[in-house]
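Appendix B. Raw example, untouched.
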Amino acid sequence: MTITNKAGIQQDDIKKPNGDSDKTERFDHDGFWKDLTERFAYSLLKRAIPELYEDADRETKPRLLDKEFRDILNTSDPEIHSNPHFADYVLEIPLKNGNAEWILLHLEAQGSGGGNLPERMNHYRCLIYAHYRREPAALAIVTDKRSVNEAEYYSHSHYGTDISYSYNNLVLSDLDDSELMSSDNPIDLVFYAAKCASRSKEELQKYNYLYTLTNLLGERGWDMEDKRNLLNFLERIMNLKDEQLRIKYEDHLEQLDKEEKIMYVSVVEEKYVAKGREEMAKKMARNLLAKGISPDVIAESAGLPLEKIQALLN
C-alpha cells in the first residue's frame, strides 16, 4: 500500500536502513542540551520561570558555571557520572539589581532515566549549599512522563525532622502542541521538537515532523545564527537516516535558504568548516606546547581530545 504524506513523500519510496529498529536513537544530550539552553537561557526562563525572567538583566549574557559544578560533583556516586540520559549544570543569571541568581538545571532526556528525580534534585541542592552557601533556584525539564509511583517533589520525615523541597518542574508532555507551534519563543520550538522525536518511530514520520519543524523555523523572524543553531538541533534530535528522504529534505532546506528563511549549510560545507576549525585549534595547541603549557590544559582550551594534543608532540 502506498501512503503519501503532506510533503509529497510516498511510503513505498522509503528504504529502512539495515539494522534499524523502532527505538529512537539519541545523541549527546549532555553537551548539546547544555549548549542550547545556555544560548537560549532567557527564552527558557520566559517559559519555565517567568518571575526570574522579569528580574533578570537580559542585556548581560548568562554564565555557565562549569568549574563550580565540577567541584560539587567531586563524588564517587557512579550514577551521577555514568547515566547518559540527563544533563545537569548550573547557570548564573545576572539580575537588574546587580546581584546574580544561580539556576540548578536538570534536564531529563527520557522520562524513566536518572533514578529518583526528587532525591536527585535535593542531592544537588545540598551539594551546592554545602560548597557555596547558596540556595539555587532549581528547574527540572523532563522530556517524557516519569514513573507514576514517583513523588512529584522531595519530602522526608524522620524522628520529628520534616523536610520538604519543591522546585520548578517542566514536563514536556504537559505542554500543548498547538501553543508550542504558534509560539514566538525559540525554546518552545526546541520543546516541540523533543516531543516529536519521542513519538517518532518510522522514517516517514520523522521526515514529516522535520519538514514541519523547519517550516516553522523558517517563518520566525529570529536571528539567522540562532536559526542555524536551532536547525542543527532539529536535524540531530529527529535523526533522519533514510538516504532518499535525506536528499528530499536537503532539497527543501535549499529552497528555504534561497528564500532567506534559514541559513542552510550543506553536509559537505559543514565538514569543511569543522576541518578548518580543527586546524585552527591544532595551530593554537602547537603554539601553547612550544611555551611549555601542559597538554591537559591545552586540550581543554583548544577543545581537542588529549590524544590529539599528545600526537602533536611527536
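End of appendix B.
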